């Protein structure tokens, strides 16, 4: 299964690791294909530089060890008829849709209200419960 993870999940995994995230990453690395979009990688670096500057090196080490494929985030609006409250979440959703991943993992509540068939939108907990 192809899985794209949102920026907030990457930050949690790199800066605030916990047993659930460890299980999640192990499950993905063993049984699935992980994708990160260019928008998330850029956003990750901006957030870390602003909020956790002393963790920048740790985040880069985390990314180097992670096995993932980079998906280019589109620069134009390609999704019609889908409304998401936070416009900053649109690039993540667009990346997930155009890359045709099966699942988008996020902790962002703005994605909960979306009524789309694919990708399936899950939290880390929901993914573990459903697929482990």
Features:
alpha/beta; Rossmann fold; 5-stranded parallel beta sheet; 6 helices; 5 strands; 14% strand
Q: Strand order, biggest sheet?
A: 3-2-1-4-5
The helix/strand order is EHHEHHEHEEH
Strand content: 5-15%
What is the number of helical segments per DSSP (H or I, 4+ residues)? Answer: 6
Integer-rounded radius of gyration: 14 Å
Biggest sheet layout: 5 strands, parallel
Mean pLDDT: 89
CATH architecture designation: 3-Layer(aba) Sandwich
**Overall 3D form:** globular
Q: Helical residue percent?
A: 40-55%
Topology, element by element:
Layout: E1 2-5, H1 7-15, H2 19-31, E2 33-37, H3 38-51, H4 56-65, E3 69-71, H5 90-98, E4 103-105, E5 120-122, H6 124-131
Helix pairs in contact: 1-3, 1-4, 2-6
């Amino acid at each position: 299964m192809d899985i794209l993870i949102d920026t907030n999940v990457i930050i949690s995994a790199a800066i605030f690791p916990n047993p659930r995230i460890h299980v999640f990453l192990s499950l993905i690395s063993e049984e699935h294909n992980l994708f990160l979009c260019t928008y998330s990688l850029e956003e990750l670096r901006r957030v870390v530089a602003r909020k956790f500057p002393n963790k920048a090196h740790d985040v880069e080490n985390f990314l180097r060890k992670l096995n993932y494929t980079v998906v280019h985030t589109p620069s134009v609006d390609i999704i019609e008829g889908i409304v998401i409250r936070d416009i900053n979440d649109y690039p993540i959703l667009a990346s997930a849709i155009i890359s045709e991943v099966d699942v988008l993992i996020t902790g962002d509540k703005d994605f909960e209200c979306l009524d789309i068939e694919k990708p399936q939108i899950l939290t880390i907990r929901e993914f573990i419960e459903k697929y482990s």
